[in-house]
Input
Amino acid sequence: TLFPGFKEKWTRWRCRLAAGSAPPPPELVFQRFRAVLGSNNRALEIIADLGEKLGGDFIFDSHYIETSLEHLLETTAGSVEAINELTACRFPELAEVHQRLTAELAETVRNREDLGGPLWLPLDQVEPTAWSLVGGKAAHLAELRRDPLLSVPDGFVLTSCSYRRLLAANGLDHNLARFEELLAQPAADEVRLEKLRAELEQRVRTAHPFPELLSAFDKGVARLRPTARNELYLAVRSSAQEEDQDFSFAGQFHSELQIPADTESLFTAYRRVVASLFAPGAVEYRRRVFPGEGKMSIAVVCQPMVTTRTSGVAFSVDAADPGSDAMVVVAAWGQGAAVVEGRTATDTFLLAKDEETTILERTIANKDQALEPASAGGLAMQPVEASRRTTPCLSDAELARLGSQVKHLETSYKKPQDVEWAVDVDGVLHILQARTLLLPVAARGRQTLPARLDGADLIADNAGRVAQHGIGAGPVRFVHNQADLADFPEGAVLVSRRDASNFVRVMGKAAAIVTEIGTPVSHMATLCREFQVPCLVGVDSICARLADGEQITVDADDRRIYRGRVPELLAFRAAAPMNFGVSREFRLLRRVLKKVSRLHLVDPLLQDFSVAGIRTVHDLLRFVHEQAVLELTRLGRDEKRLLAGSLARPMDLPVPAGVLVIDIGGALAEDASATGVPFTAVRSAPLRAILQGMLFPGVWHRTAMAVGLRDLMSSMLSAPADTLDGRYSGHNIAIASDEYVNLCFRLGYHFNIIDAHCSATERDNHIYFRFLGGASDMAKRSRRAVLIARILEAFDFHVQTKGDMVIARAGNMVQPEMERTLDILGRLVGFTRQLDVRLEHDGIVDRYVEAFLYGDYGIVGE
Output
């Protein structure tokens, strides 16, 4: 505090010194790598602990949150320092990123995220972490607009910063501070509170604009006007910070509909909406649901009015019978405000949640009035022509489409949904709002469930470990590789041998996730907590006990898996109490985790893993981990550095692999020979596993392959540049410790890198594999790259290919699984080392892939 920015300046200065110094010895590099992993693991464990508290099974206070955050930020700072130690300060800007995240989290803890930020935002630019700036409703709408299956009107948001600026420009800051302070008192002076409330409401209604606010309206309207088919009218809707979160605030805040898109009209409507934050009903609602709290800001979202034919509300669960697996749709002609305000008769439909939505019941009302645009602006109740009054206002096809989208929303948010919708004059279905549907708590709670579940077919009990609590049911969908995610069906249960952060692609669709291998502190587990996907990991042999497509119910609360849909559990899920999140501490933790645990940097092969992409603490940790792995990969390729000081010892193997080992700590037995290290002397878990695979009977083929002159010339002319600068001079270097190996292979004209960490700590474990080159033309080498990629994908690697190059990654595996996978890599290296010259056409690739997967290694010698 005495020297602002001193630490960051010191870091940059120290980095400049490090950049000009000699590179450290390999032993020190590995020590620093372990320091990175240690800091990262401690930080991820803190994030996992914070996420677990959101399950509602723990009592905690604000001191726990603040202490955990302090520990997390201190640990993350250690990760930043460790990665710069490891990389000779290649990333000094990470200190500034850490400082920014620290400042943002401090604002969150103080509940003052509304003090800084833009005055307005297009709806499509609203980030998930901007929840407190744009309010709950706008945040949900922005998220819904990103869903390609939904049509949601565009719009823009006047943020909570605009609200704060409006009050400041009209001299209301002091009034607001006194009001918030008094509202937070359990025994407030009611007369004084009411006086302050009424004064604020009235003065906001007559407030004068500040210039930037009017400019924001102009810019927002200019962005929307080109898409308007006729004259542009807007809906000006409230979006308070807590609105449509755990509480709906239904009807408490004001919205203005059918407002002409001129600045004066919009500002008048804006003032009315903002003033409703201080309306008597809204203040009383806040006092009841948030006792002892005073701070709340309001944003305002503006969207083009839908030229509505039919509108209404849909509940994804029948509140009268939560276990019935049915949805309720209420509809009327015209604008939906008449439906939610009870101003018109409505049609009611009961829909089954089948794969193909079917209509169970329909009640058609005499709809003699509808809310329609008035000639002078705004909306008014108008008579419906006689021919339409008893006609259903939704066709069967429209009901099926609506039912499908409501089911999709429930699956996405993992909770029953209250959905406002409209069908326009062209028959297009628009989603106007979606929020959690609060249901009454069942008279008999979870304690009575065991007796009622006696007849259920239990597949697994005490199953694995909980990554995210909850209950989900649906058809089993096995995910064996990344390609299986492309057509993942809505509402299915994802079942896989191991977890993967790329499951994020379908978490919005998945009813639950079950894996045989995994850990509650993996990236995938963090994402499951973020997306509230019920998830069990480490469920032994579950794949063998299930059939693709069969219905199951996953109870991640009690760690049980049942065959079929279990109505009692689903009814309990629908009617589970929702009020565990009403406390300030719970809501604070949820806001904190949005800036801590959300992961944007998911896939280093498909994304630009840059410092600029870091938005959360989890992003920072993911970036640091990836760079640490890449740094060791670079070290393994620096042969001159590794051979300095005669650190390397040759291996004595029964195959001519020519491997030199550099022991940086426990890789070899203490009495290992300096002139020929046998396989039995290898103590490094990952190196031993790779060599064991290479030495597997039949994998290493000694027969020379016939190489044509054209192939030979092509391979020589296209040899990768890094093979010509001395780094691949013919030695095969293994830099290893007891838990780590970086193995650089040159076998003929092809080159491999295997970088692996294999220990008892799942989160540390990773495999990086790179392959390129060959003794044939580019077509054959590319076929071999395809062959290798398909085999690696079959073993759950994430793979990227380009020409004859293959890059693959895997990780977060328990040690026995790591050793098995590294054994497979060793076999793959031996099996494919001369195979490119035989790949004369694309069809032959299938033959060799199948042979390898079935263990028919002798096919290469045929």
